[in-house]
Amino acid sequence: MPRLVHVGLRNYIPAERVLSCESAGQAWVQRLVRAARRGETGATVLDLTAGRRTRGVLFLDTGHIALVALSPQTIGSRLTAARR
Q1: What does the H/E/C string look like for 62-77?
Q2: How many CA atoms does the CB half-sphere of 4 hold within 13 Å?
């Protein structure tokens, strides 16, 4: 059974699917998300912020990019706890 990680606002993602968790303020992350929203990449963007400010971006092994309202540090600690 997959271990689900709470990424805020009643949204959960399987911990083993997350490849990396990055800050949304980084220029390369912003460019990649913008390109994915335009359909220029093969990635699908999942907006899990419910209208709040995007603070973290999760890259999944399924090709999805998840935008979350929690900081990368918070998500990282939850991922570490779930993988134990």
Answers
A1: CCEEEEECCCHHHHHH
A2: 8
pTM: 0.95
**Distance (Å, rounded) from C-alpha 62 to C-alpha 52?**
24
Give, in order, the Cα–Cα distances in Å from 66 to each of 6, 46, 84.
Answer: 13, 5, 23
From residue 1, give the alpha-carbon distance in Å to each of 5, 9, 15, 67.
Answer: 13, 22, 11, 24
What pLDDT, in 10s, does the model give residues 15-25?
A: 999 999 999 99
Q: Which of 50, 77, 65, 81 is nearest to 17 (CA)?
A: 65
Residue with structure tokens 């335009």?
38
Check residue 12 and report its DSSP letter.
E
Q: Which residues pair with 55 in a beta bridge?
A: none
